[in-house]
């Protein structure tokens, strides 16, 4: 995670960013710290990547890379405003000694990649359509040695996979069907017949931009219907308020790069 000490909305590269809407950076830091403390309270170790001046979106740490079994497929951002973030993430992974694969294809890390270790022995789901090029899916498969399933995003409000779908445990997911093409919806239905489906209202509240440890599901506090469905399915919803960071087009998951050793 990377604290939003320099967080502002001074450019617009997704439908949620409004450069005329004021950002309370002090509140953003307070909310981010509450999120970090939530993960620590739930028993997770949090590494902090120090923010850099001139990179206001660095708080969205999920976009910097994607790792599986200590191998890191690096990010190559679509927009120049975020390009330098990739190097900051690489320095972190070099420090902890993980093998880093430099990408040649445009991709935005865990924004468009996620992993289910028990599905088909280890399955990567990968989004494309707005930020990540579909060619990056094949490159990630070669880098990580895991099968990759391509899913096409069709609604610009859900410009990354991580605002449309999330793993709940090692083999099941929750997603909003309207974010995907008809063919991709068919693929998801075949792969995950027991998936939880989110409403459009909860998806627009960034409810799917969540982090689950298989039991506790940390999600945006506005996604109340989804929280109820998760509770009914046996999970424990842990609501967190991130109103300021939503102004940049992200929420819980966007702030977290999961380290898969």
Automatic annotation (TrEMBL):
Transmembrane segments: none annotated. Pfam families: DDAH_eukar. PANTHER family: ARGININE DEIMINASE (PTHR47271:SF2). This is Dimethylarginine dimethylaminohydrolase family protein.
